[in-house]
């Protein structure tokens, strides 16, 4: 019964976390302000896409749709784009940002670009494989296990900050799952880190995370001071591990 309750609570936590774009925007802001790699993860992902005229593009887990802002007109002739997300709030934000176009659709779907959100990633990948046309390409972005959360939990463990990273589909675990469904799987690494000058922004990031819902707000000043103590020459260096699987 205990495991069933835990499993049942995960969709509820996800629904609360992504009912609006607020928490996602807090986390995106940290990356936008302090990332060493100024290309940006979204533009980097797009640099790997190889769309052809007439392609039917399905995005799983579009979030606010920001990745497509300013890029819809650059799609090859005849391409159609279906944006999906498990959150109605996210789809509303995407529709507000991108508007209506003849070649653009929005739809709720219970699978996410970040496959660690899917209760059974292998079954999710089975459905991806089912809808992918012969010769099609599946681009799958995710994180690694040795990045921001691992660093912050090590630094702030005394405050109850735990490494709650979902490891069901990461750089380290995703390859084997994908290899069971696709004949060709390769990983592209996005080299980056954070160089933070205001620890208050890191505190905002922490309190936006699903796994930190029980973090005591009264501890925030002490957390900020601990973060400040980890700074060198006015900068807190935080590792990042991100990239993308490309599957045929």
Largest sheet: 3 strands, parallel
Structural class: alpha/beta
Low-confidence stretches: 1-9
- Shape field: globular
Q: Tell me the domain tally.
A: 1
Strand content: 15-25%
Oligomer: single chain
Q: What is the CATH domain class?
A: Alpha Beta
CATH fold type: Rossmann fold
User: What is the radius of gyration computed over CA atoms, rounded to a whole number of angstroms?
Assistant: 19 Å
Proportion in helices: 25-40%
Enumerate how many helices there are, as a single number.
9
Number of strands: 8
Q: What is the CATH homologous superfamily assignment?
A: Vaccinia Virus protein VP39
How are the strands of the biggest sheet laid out side by side? Answer: 1-2-3
First-last Cα distance: 40 Å
The residue-averaged pLDDT reads 89
Second CATH tier, the architecture: 3-Layer(aba) Sandwich
Order of helices and strands: HHHEEHEHEHHEEHHEE
What does this structure look like?
- There is one protein chain.
- The protein has nine helices and eight strands.
- It has 248 residues and is α/β, with parallel strands linked by helices.
- A three-stranded parallel beta sheet has the order 1-2-3. Strands 4-8-5 form a three-stranded antiparallel beta sheet. It has a two-stranded antiparallel sheet with strand order 6-7.
- Strand 2, helix 4 (88-98) and strand 3 (104-108) form a beta-alpha-beta unit.
- The chain is globular and about 55 Å long.
């Amino acid at each position: 019964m205990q495991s069933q309750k835990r499993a049942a609570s995960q969709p509820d936590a996800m629904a609360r976390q992504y009912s609006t774009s607020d928490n996602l925007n807090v986390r995106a802001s940290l990356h936008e302000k302090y990332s060493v790699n100024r290309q940006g993860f979204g533009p980097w992902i797009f640099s790997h896409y190889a769309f052809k005229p007439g392609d039917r593009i399905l995005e799983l887990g579009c979030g606010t749709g920001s990745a497509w802002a300013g890029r819809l007109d650059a799609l090859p002739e005849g391409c159609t784009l279906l944006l999906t997300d498990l959150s109605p709030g996210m789809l509303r934000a995407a529709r507000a940002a991108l508007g209506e176009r003849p070649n653009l659709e929005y739809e709720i779907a219970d699978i996410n670009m970040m496959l660690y959100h899917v209760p059974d990633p292998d079954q999710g990948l089975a459905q991806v494989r089912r809808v992918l046309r012969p010769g099609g390409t599946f681009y799958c972005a995710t994180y690694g296990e040795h990045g921001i959360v691992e660093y912050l939990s090590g630094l702030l463990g005394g405050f109850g900050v735990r490494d709650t990273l979902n490891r069901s589909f990461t750089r380290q675990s995703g390859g084997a799952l994908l290899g069971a469904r696709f004949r060709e799987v390769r990983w592209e690494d996005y080299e980056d880190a954070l160089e933070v000058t205001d620890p208050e922004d890191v505190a905002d990031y922490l309190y936006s995370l699903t796994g930190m819902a029980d973090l005591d707000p009264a501890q925030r000043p002490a957390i900020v001071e601990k973060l400040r103590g980890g700074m060198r020459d006015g900068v807190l260096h935080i590792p990042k591990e991100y990239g993308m699987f490309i599957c045929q």
